[in-house]
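Same chain as my last thread, 97 residues:
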Amino acid sequence: MNKLFFTLEARADLRGARSWCRTAYPNEYRRLCQTFADAFDEIAESPLRWAPWRAPDYRRRLLPPYPYAIVYHLAADHVIIDAILHQRQDPTRRFPP
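reply #2:
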């Protein structure tokens, strides 16, 4: 299993997603947090499972049923989580095509 590291932006994105959910849908908060945790575990276990996205270095793991995507890339011996994007955000602002 690979070790995961989060960029400062990704940490802020995750806090924002959790905060939004806690306020807008408090009954879904625990489920959202567990869905994120499961997705991070899957990425750590098999990071090549998701196809390259945007540039050959980035990959994206969608988070159904929630409108979020986890953007990450592989380093020598670990995985770096670069962003947690809401699917209505314009990804080109942070990840040019």
